[in-house]
Amino acid sequence: MTSEQQKRVLVTGGTGLVGSAIKYVIENESNKKNQNEEYFFISSSECDLRNREQTEALFKKYQPTHVIHLAALVGGLFRNLSRNLDFFRDNMQINDNILYVAYQTGVKKVISCLSTCIFPDKTTYPIDETMIHNGAPHDSNFGYSYAKRMIDVLNKGYAVQHNVHYTSIIPTNVFGPNDNFNIEDGHVLPGLIHKCYLAKKNNTPLIIWGSGKPLRQFIYSYDLARLCLWVLREYDSIEPIILSVGEEDEVSIKEAAEAVVKGMDFQGEVKYDTTKADGQFKKTASNKKLRSYLPDFKFTPFEEAIKYTCDCILIIISTLLYIICLFLSDTWFIIKQNTNNETIIYFQSKNICLNGKDNKFCIEPYLPINQCNEYDLIPWTIRCSRKYFIFFNKTSLNICNCFQISLTNIIYRNNIFIFILLILINLITFSKYCSTKECILYYLNKYFLLILLISIISFEFYFIYIIFNDKKSIEKLYRNYFSMIQIYSTIFYSFQILIIIIHIISIIILVHE
């Protein structure tokens, strides 16, 4: 199409926190605003944006008409303190390359993502878009702050000298699924979630750096994604715009920690390490300009967004644990749908107990069990010490204590590696004692092994793909997956019987020879 509305949108940092949220929002938009839009989500593995030649090659490959520039070298407070020069130089290179190559290739609009850390340390509150250059930013992350601030200078330069439309957004503290949960270089909320998970897992106190008194405005990544798309489609000014919740929604680090504790269902002790620096005390931003454009925009309530973010982390953790169990043990599966139209998945692992305690619920330290009682599962704890119950609904996941297995509902998956080993033994045997050109048994084993390996690899990678690319339909995906396992198991049993027969025949032939 050559329509003027047709957009080819390149999203740098496309697999990060905000980029993945934009992708999620686009894929789930009910309106038709994106019908003339094509998006390309780029990660750092595809292009080093610090390199001019690689950046030019990227733009040549995708030929974007619009760019949402999210890529940056980022880190938490303590990483910023030790690497200010690196943050300044790398981010300046990235930003200059993006805007220069965008201009050279005729990109119509670039939206760059800034941060509230660009505002002066010593200022009046609330801060607004007119105050960006009124003083020096906080010393703790001056390198990153100045590099981000220079985007505004570049935007104005391109507008004045070349009459092009480049603008920027200034979100407050962003959080949500797919964040950087590294404790050392992640931001405050994902760091708190990771710490809380570890404290719960290890039954230790939750240690929070600083006094807990600093104030922050947090914006949920999916809310920010919706606002980014509005800026792309409707915001025409080159002047930056703050994307934030209102001043009245500002919370302290202590209040944020309490929300995380609640979201993770953490029952342990919470301590504050006041020997650690607090950083900037407050960065209260005004969203008055945003509200003048979108007076009715509804932000996701903070505690609700925190709970969903925590649940997403637990889903990822449980999925990884599930995959470990699947590959390391013989496993029994049950999948049911209850009266509330919620998917319930049961599985028993015979050969693995993740915390090494045979007489206790194996995965209990990892995830909450507060929804187990309604299913009357607790009395079966000792009897079913290695059976796990997974409960899914739209926003939460719990691994609970076990239940009594109904043999009429089970799906059994055997250990595929032993099966593959049997085929390999057959192949080695036939290749040594049998003429491969004449021995049909060799070919049966050879091609059967190839078919089996391809089907297993395809099956498992498809499962991982759908889990990590469609979190919204988690129940549907698991239902589909286990329906596939039923078919797969039937085929698997047939193949197993066939290979055993072939093995017996092979032994008989070799004995007679």
Automatic annotation (TrEMBL):
InterPro entries: Epimerase_deHydtase, GDP_fucose/colitose_synth, NAD(P)-bd_dom_sf
Record bears the keyword NADP: yes
EC number(s) given by UniProt: 1.1.1.271
Identification of the protein by name: GDP-L-fucose synthase
Function: Catalyzes the two-step NADP-dependent conversion of GDP-4-dehydro-6-deoxy-D-mannose to GDP-fucose, involving an epimerase and a reductase reaction.
UniProt KW keywords: Isomerase, Membrane, NADP, Oxidoreductase, Transmembrane, Transmembrane helix
GO biological process, one term: 'de novo' GDP-L-fucose biosynthetic process
NAD-dependent epimerase/dehydratase domain: residues covered: 9-245
GO molecular function: GDP-L-fucose synthase activity; isomerase activity
Transmembrane region(s): 313-335, 416-435, 447-468, 488-511
Native source species: Rotaria sordida
KW Oxidoreductase (keyword) present: yes
HAMAP family in the record: GDP_fucose_synth
Signal peptide, first to last residue: none
Catalytic class of the enzyme: oxidoreductase
Pfam families recorded: Epimerase
Gene3D superfamilies in UniProt: NAD(P)-binding Rossmann-like Domain, UDP-galactose 4-epimerase, domain 1
